Every structure is written in C-alpha cells, then in structure tokens.
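Appendix C reproduces, verbatim, an entry submitted by the partner laboratory led by Prof. M.T., so that reviewers can inspect both the input and the predicted structure.
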Amino acid sequence: MPHKLAEHALQETRRLGVRPIPSAQPLRWLARGWHDLMRCPAPGLLHGLLLALFGGTLLVLARHHFWLLTGAFTGFLLVAPILATGLYAISRALERRQPATLRTALRTWYPDDGRLVVFGVLLAFAGTGWVVTSASLITGFAPARIDNPQDFLRHVVLAESGLLFEAWVLLGALLAAPVFASSVVAIPLLLDRRIGILGAVLTSWRVVMAHPVPMALWALLLVALTLLAMLPLLLGLVVVAPWLAHASWHAYRDLVDPAGAQERG
C-alpha cells in the first residue's frame, strides 16, 4: 500500500511543471500581494487582526513564561501557511475576476474533502513539536530561570559561556527548513487542484530544489517581515500577515504550471 501511494504521488507531481523564475522574483510576489490586499482589504485585515489578538492572548497568558513564548511565536511561522488558506482563495478570485468577499475566504474552511484539514493537522504537530523542543532546550540548559525577554536576552542570547542560543537557532532551522520545503506551494496547490497531499508535498520540494536561491530569499523575507510585524505589540501582523498570504498565492502561481492537473472548485 505505501508503495502504491508513493507511485501515485509521483504520477501526480509529474503532471505539474515547475516554471523558471529570476532570483529577485520574491520581491514581485510582495508587490502583487500588496496589490491584492489593497483591492480587497477587509478579509485580509480581519484575518490579520484575529492573528494579532490570538498572539496577544498568548502573550498575556504566558507573560511570565518566556521560555514557552519563544517557541510558541517561532512555531507560529510553521502553521501560518494553513491559516492563510482563505486569503489564497481571495487572490484566486481576484485573478479570475470573480467576486472576492469575506464569504469567499470563509468558504475554504468548509472543504468538500479533508486534504487541507489533514495537512493543517500535520503542520500543527510540527509546530507543537518545536514548542516542546524549544521549551525543553531553554529550561534544561539555560543557566538561570527564563521568565521574561530580559532573561532570555541575558542568559540565552548574550550568555558568556555555552552555545545555547546557537543550538536553539540551529534546531529551529533544522525543523523549519523541511516544513517550509514541504508547504511553500503545497497548500495553495491543494486549494487550487485535485491532488493528493503527498503529491502536493513532492511538488513543493521540486520547486525548492529547482530554485534554491529565490526560495531561500523568499523564506528569509517571510521570517524577517513576520518577526518585524511582531515587534510593535504584534500590531504589525494585522497588515503583514494578509500581505504575505496574498504574496504566497502569487508565488504558487509563478512557480507551478498546473497543466494536466484537474482544477478544484
């Protein structure tokens, strides 16, 4: 059975092409994503506001356990793509010159199959795994209790001895890299086409392997802009989260040639 599933996934991904792109193409995705947000701002801003409120609630509940917050907020980057599914649908509707409303975004949360739900659960497991790993590493090896950002800066980032911060960053990167490679175009592909989860993941890996430089730039932009958006009390997420979501749809459309794959919706 696993062999048949793998063979079917390979057949699915082979029906999809990977388009060539210039190294600076991620900057164009940002420009197109901003254009989509300005054309249909309400669903995106609501999405960003809900994310900011969720982050604020987490911050209040765990404000004295910064060792947990560090993992939770960085783990957010792993699950953010699935939370943006409704905004991919908005960008698709705008592209097709169809009505793009809040209902368009909400409709994606009532799928006629479970592929997006399953993929979301897998991302949630990855995010939870990083939260547990991060918390265990910091509480187990930090020379003092980490209760607030000042403690984290003093005892982890600027520690005079040991390599705790370097190990924390390295472990995060080791987990984030395969998750990024597996999901960067997989979720919009699952929304747009009738393809299995494994086939979508393999296509996402093909994209990353075919374009390592622009995809590394895209990953850097996603992380940097998201972290910057978190600095002003998470308020930047109201705009940055939907902006990056719309841009991610255009990344998928530029990178994947869907010829031969059955359209969904």
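The first helix runs from residue 2 to 14. Additional entries are available on request from the coordinating office.
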